[in-house]
Amino acid sequence: MFCMQVGFLALMLALPDMARLFGKTPEVMQDALSAYLLSNGAMLVAAGRLGDVAGRRRVFVAGCVLFTVALVGAALAPGLPVLVVFRVLQGAGAGLMLPTGIALVTASYAEADQQARALALTFALATTGTVIGPLLGGWLAGGPGWRWIFWLLALFAAATVAVTVRFVPESRKKAPGRSFDVPGAAMVVLAVAAVGTGIDRADSVGWSGANIVLLAAGLAVIAVFPLRARRAAHPLVDLAVFHDLRFSLILFLGAVSSVCYAATLFVVSVDLQDARRLTAIRASLVFAIMSVLVALAIPVGARLRAGNRQVLVVAGTGLISSVALLLLAVVTSWWAYVPALALYGFMLGLGDSAVTIVSQQVAGPDQAGEVSGVLLTIRTITAGISLAVAASIVDAFEHGGHSTAAACDLALLLVALLSVAASLIATAAGYALARRGLIKPL
């Protein structure tokens, strides 16, 4: 998880340098980021269930090996198409690792409080990668080159394989019905790949017939998937988990949070380096400040886990995040810009911690990987799509006659409005459901 955080944010800061090397614009280079996120999201649900059935450590190690090999391939990539291919493989490896890794931690502790503390510590340590990532990306982009991001991460990933094999015990679902729903997994992978690719390609080549067909096919598979899940003896996703309306609300808020986070990272990166003309190293310092606040917020979020407060915590952090994004869109002075970005980071860490913990507590240990996969799939796919949309919005504003700085400000304003709307909707829905007795009073 540390490697994933470092890699994502380091590449975000190295994007302008990569664009210059390949003769592309930053908006085109975001394909390297979107490809990773979409491939990652396509694997997560299947990986979580596969880990529950076949062994979480086994699936985790397999994903880590694929992740390592793909890092080496990306480091050697001669051009953007080859880089995108290895980023797809890297995303698939990460998709195998994430839900099984979280489930391994959850399965190691019996009590809910212990699980919450362990998950909070895990995410706090992993989030140190969000601090190091921008600094590493800025330093390497301005010095040895962005390829060294992949080489360094490959060393860490290889060490992870060795440590996991030696020290981590195997864990799998104890309940009966240990079969894997292969058709269901194929449906999820195809649906995610079709929808994500259709939207992502539309950003670069427009809404061609092929993209419309891809999107329609993916949505059709998504519509049919619940029917398949109800008829399968051991479905890939147990739809009963959605009966807990707290989980559904948290899932909605988590998805919106991911959309806002990915879009904000892209827009701020372009704003700092292309509009404000900061070097990659100086831009990385601004990002690092935000990342420190993300890491500090996660242990705080772990303490706000009792009852149904998670919904209010996540909705409240969304509202305060909106204020921070509005400030980013209107201020010009550094004394206001950096604190606003730091505030956004703290609210992000607080909300994400609550999202992860409540999803694991709703599921229980037997479904830890499955639910983790559902949550991560939705959050990753929405983040990947939002990158393409954010790049398209900035590009459209620029072509409409706005400067790069003005285009970034307008994009951040749209992200803030989305965050406000989602938070208010979730809060109102939570109170309405509680009033009708469908969930416990908030």
From the structure above, extract its key features:
442 residues, mainly alpha, Growth Hormone, Chain: A, 15 helices, 83% helix
How would you describe what is shown here?
There is one protein chain. The chain has 15 helices and no strands. It has helices spanning 2-22, 26-29, 31-54, 56-75, 80-107, 112-142, 147-167, 182-205, 209-231, 245-275, 280-303, 309-330, 334-363, 368-399, 404-435. Helix 8 (182-205) packs antiparallel against helix 9, helix 8 (182-205) packs parallel to helix 14 (368-399) and helix 11 (280-303) packs across helix 13. It is globular.
Shape: globular
Q: Mean pLDDT score, rounded?
A: 81
Q: Please tally the helical runs, counting DSSP H or I stretches of 4 or more residues.
A: 15
- Named CATH architecture: Up-down Bundle
Provide the CATH topology. Answer: Growth Hormone, Chain: A
Q: What would you call the structural class?
A: mainly alpha
Element-by-element helix/strand order: HHHHHHHHHHHHHHH
Strand content: under 5%
Spans of at least 5 consecutive residues with low confidence = none
Residues in helix, %: over 70%
Query: What's the β-strand tally?
Result: 0
Short summary of the structure?
This protein is mostly helical. The chain is built from 15 helices and no strands.
What is the fold's blueprint, element by element?
Blueprint: H1 2-22, H2 26-29, H3 31-54, H4 56-75, H5 80-107, H6 112-142, H7 147-167, H8 182-205, H9 209-231, H10 245-275, H11 280-303, H12 309-330, H13 334-363, H14 368-399, H15 404-435
Helix pairs in contact: 1-6, 1-7, 1-10, 3-4, 3-5, 3-8, 3-14, 4-5, 4-7, 5-6, 5-14, 6-11, 6-13, 8-9, 8-14, 10-12, 10-13, 10-14, 10-15, 11-13, 12-13, 12-15, 13-14, 14-15
